Amino acid sequence: xxxxxxxxxxxxxxxxxxxxxxxxxxxxxxxxxxxxxxxxxxxxxxxxxxxxxxxxxxxxxxxxxxxxxxxxxxxxxxxxxxxxxxxxxxxxxxxxxxxxxxxxxxxxxxxxxxxxxxxxxxxxxxxxxxxxxxxxxxxxxxxxxxxxxxxxxxxxxxxxxxxxxxxxxxxxxxxxxxxxxxxxxxxxxxxxxxxxxxxxxxxxxxxxxxxxxxxxxxxxxxxxxxxxxxxxxxxxxxxxxxxxxxxxxxxxxxxxxxxxxxxxxxxxxxxxxxxxxxxxxxxxxxxxxxxxxxxxxxxxxxxxxxxxxxxxxxxxxxxxxxxxxxxxxxxxxxxxxxxxxxxxxxxxxxxxxxxxxxxxxxxxxxxxxxxxxxxxxxxxxxxxxxxxxxxxxxxxxxxxxxxxxxxxxxxxxxxxxxxxxxxxxxxxxxxxxxxx
Length: 436
Fold this sequence. Notes:
Elements: H1 3-17, H2 24-40, H3 45-59, H4 62-65, H5 70-86, E1 100-105, H6 112-125, E2 130-135, H7 142-153, E3 157-158, H8 164-178, E4 182-187, H9 195-208, E5 212-218, H10 223-236, E6 240-244, H11 253-262, E7 266-270, E8 278-280, H12 283-290, H13 296-303, H14 308-319, H15 325-337, H16 341-346, H17 359-374, H18 378-382, H19 389-399, H20 403-424
Parallel strand pairs: 1-4, 1-5, 2-3, 2-4, 5-6, 6-7
Antiparallel strand pairs: 7-8
Helix pairs in contact: 1-2, 2-3, 3-5, 5-12, 6-7, 8-9, 10-11, 15-17, 17-19, 19-20
C-alpha cells in the first residue's frame, strides 16, 4: 500500500531539494503536486484541503525561510502534519468487570472474521482468557471459518442456533461461568449497508454492553470505506477502527482520511492473511512509510520472528565457507516469515517509493527456489558438488522446474559461497553481526 503515493511525494521533495531557497511560489507549486498525489490516492478532499492549509501556513513562515535546508524543513512539516492528520494511536480499553466484550462490525469481505482471530491470538498472548463468538449467521461458512481459526490458535468459539442477539447473550453468560476475561463477537456483515444490519448490530450492542465497538474496514475500498465508517459511527458509536489489507495494492487514502473524517481512532492494521499479521497503529511509523522515510522499528519487530540461534549459527558457517543449501533454505524460510519483500524494502529508510519490484514475481521465484532445494536429498543439500546430470534431472522433475533453473541456482549459490569465504578471510574488516 502507498507505493504510488510515496513515489509521487518523493518526486515532489526531490524537486524541492534542487532549490537553495524556497519562495512562496515554489511552495505553492510543490503543494499543488502534493494535492494531486493525495487526491489520486483517494484521500478525502476535505482532509486534503485542511492538511495543505496547515502545511502551507508553516512552509511559508519563518521556520522554513530561516532554515539552513528549506527543502528538508518542508518534508519535516509534511511529516508532522501527516501524523496530526492520522491522529493519536488508539489502545484497546479493556476496563471494567470481566468478561469485557469487543464487538466487531463491518461489511462482508472486509476481513472481519479473520481479524477476530488475530485479535484473539494477540490478547491471549497478553494473558487474557479469550472466547470468540460466531454471530455471523448469514454468510455461508462464516461459523465454520471462525471455528477453524479458533482451533488453530487454541481459542474456544461459541456457536448456537437462533437469533444472533440471543446467541451473543448466551455467549456472554457462558463466558462468565467459564471465567473468560475477553469475549470477541464477530457480527454479521453485508454486501452493503442496510437497516436490518444496523438494527441487529445495535441489538447485540444493547444486550452485551461492549467496552469496544470496532469497525473492521477494507483499506482497498478507498473513499467508500470512509462513508461506511461514518454510517457505522452514527448508528453504533464506534470506539475504534481497524484497517485490513494494508499489505495490498490500496492507494492508501482510507488510512489517511478515516481518522480525520470520523474522529474515531485507528487501533490496528491488518498486514497480511496469517493470524499473526496484525500491527498496532502508530501514526509516526505509518507517516514515515508514506513519505519514504522507512519504518526501522517495524523492521526490527518483524526480525524478532526470526530464530536468533539459527541465524547466528548460519552466520558463523557462512563466513567460514561451510554454508550449505540446508542453511540457505532455513534462512530463506526465516526471512519469509518477516513478510513480503516489497513491505520489507518499504521499511528501509530511503528506499520507500524508490525501489520498485514485482512482488508476485519475487515470491514466485522464492517458491521455485524452495521447491528445487526441497527436491534434493540431504546429502545433495550439504554437498551440491555431487549433483551430476542425472541427479539434476531428478531434482528438476521433483520440483516441477527445468534443469537450467537448477543449474542457475547452483551457480548463484557457489558465487555466494565464494564471496562469503573471501569476506571470512577478512573478518577484521567484516565482523560478524551480533544476534541477541
